[in-house]
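REQUEST
  id: r-88c1
  op: predict_structure
  target: Macrolide export ATP-binding/permease protein MacB
  payload:
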Amino acid sequence: MNFINNFEVALNGIKANKMRSSLTMLGIIIGVAAVIIMISVGQGASKKISDQISSMGSNLLMVFSGAGTGPVRGASGNVNTLTLEDAEAIADLNMVSNVVPELSTSATVTYDNQTWTSTADGTTPEMLSIKKWSVSLGSFFTKEDITGASMVAVIGNTVAENLFPTGFNPVGSTIRINKLAFTVVGVLASKGAAMAGQDQDDVIYVPVSTVQKRMMGVNYVRTINVQTATEDSMTYVQSSIETLLRERHRISGDKTDDFNVRNLTSVLEAAQTTTGVMTLLLASVAAVSLLVGGIGIMNIMLVSVTERTREIGLRMAVGATESNIRNQFLVEALVLCMVGGIIGIITGVIGAKIISQVSGWSTYITMSSILLSTGFSVAIGAFFGYYPAKKAAGLDPIVALRFEK
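RESPONSE
  id: r-88c1
  status: 200
  body:
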């Protein structure tokens, strides 16, 4: 008997016991759907983190004040050691394409009778290139505004929505930031939430020199963003920055650095490793339900062998070989798993989309997760269907013909 005939016999057997077959497949359906949903949740989290880190800039190194892991705190307390001159010196290094110093402060913004609390971020025009941002209204401030410490501002979408009436163009309007008058020259396109969850549109960008001289009265910056020419040059540039700043800050020997250079590629790799482990854990937990479904299939196939003992004896008596009988029951187990797997895939895809819409979690369904769960379900069918099939093939035809239920 060939595969097609075995397949037809298997389908007839399933149709003859619809309720039992449906309940048997339920374990496979739940298992496949659970694997797809769990993997999609894990991969969705990984993709979201990757996108958020990538949105911070490509080929990006970040230089923070202080020797610790935070942007300001050092080994011996709060230190502010980076300056605009440091940023200019870094810009002269080989394989450096853009350098953007940053200094931010809290800001109370008012326009007319509207008040909003936000963050004033002092930066330079190169920020647009590094972050790959765009301006939806007006324009960004210029290098001349940096030189002259101009009182101009580019506002985020959230700030614009809370200060100005709907549909109003704020470009050219005068707002007050911490009681200082600034002219709005542009509005940034919406960017959404950052990796840590903060609203990237709830920021006001002003020239870094303006924040230093007119808002805070300081001569330091807290962060220097460095974009390298290529991704392969990041390690070289990071080493060059560390050497340069140690020389400029007169740090010699075993003395602790008063700065910290962070490579976002390393951060991304660490995040992907973490989410990869989480995805594997979720998939492993979900795979347990597939094993339970496989045990259910073995149980039902053993019952089927017992119920059809006389049928098996009759078929053997008319010439069916052991391999014919074994293949018949093995194909039946595989068909149960394949049908259950297909329904499980559909259920898993729909379930992942529902979870994404209802809970707001990011889910990402890949073909690899579908193929993995499908292959696993078929393997379960072959593994747990083999023993009942072998048992059926090993029956003595004489004994089988005399069997009574």
